[in-house]
Every structure is written in structure tokens, then in C-alpha cells.
Amino acid sequence: MSITSLQDVKEFSTERFTKRVLFRHDGGVTFVLHFLPGQKLPVHKHPGTDVILLVVEGTGTMILDGVEQEVKQEDVICCGGETEFAFHNTGNSETRLFVTLNKVPNESYGQNI
């Protein structure tokens, strides 16, 4: 077991967004992205994973396969790793995204809980 405070890894840079890895486990990774107003995460994919993002703080624009969607604190985004996604902090304050990239053993995993 491991416990990490998001406050302990909270770090912004005027040069570009920052990424702080929290955990690596069984082929997955959990991290936090920090954006100042105007900073962007470029379009990219994570093939072979499921991507889950939680807006911890702030607002911005999430772009999923070219479609823009405004997001705000406590919004949760889930997409497959083949989805092209990007993020732009279009707000006036700091934005933090909590991200998990995971591998699921098979389609039926967890359906009958």
C-alpha cells in the first residue's frame, strides 16, 4: 500500500505543463498534470490502455478525437487509448488533472461485482 498527497506533488512551471508520477503498478501508471492558464497538452494517444482523467482543480478544454468539450473541477473523462486527446487550460487559474493509464485483463473483468 502507498499513500501520496496531491499537495506534496503540486508543482507548476511557467515554461510548460508539469507531470508528477504518483504510482506505477502492474503495467499501469497514475500521475498528475499541472497547467497554468494558456498551457496545453499536445494531441496524443496511449494505445493498449484505458485512460481516466479527473479534473482536480480548474477548468479547460478537452479535445477527444477532434471534438472540443469544456471541463471543470470534478469532471471525470474516460476513453480508450486509441482516442486522440489533448487539453488546453483556457481558464484564468491553475488546472490539475489526475490521470490513470491502466490495462484491463479482458472485457468481462469487473462486470459481475
UniProtKB/TrEMBL annotation:
Annotated ranges, domain Cupin type-2: 32-99
What highest taxon heads this organism's lineage? Bacteria
Q: Which Gene3D superfamilies match?
A: Jelly Rolls
| Pfam families in the record | Cupin_2
What is the name of this protein? Answer: Quercetin dioxygenase-like cupin family protein
Task: Name the InterPro entries on file.
Answer: Cupin_2 (IPR013096), RmlC-like_jellyroll (IPR014710), RmlC_Cupin_sf (IPR011051)
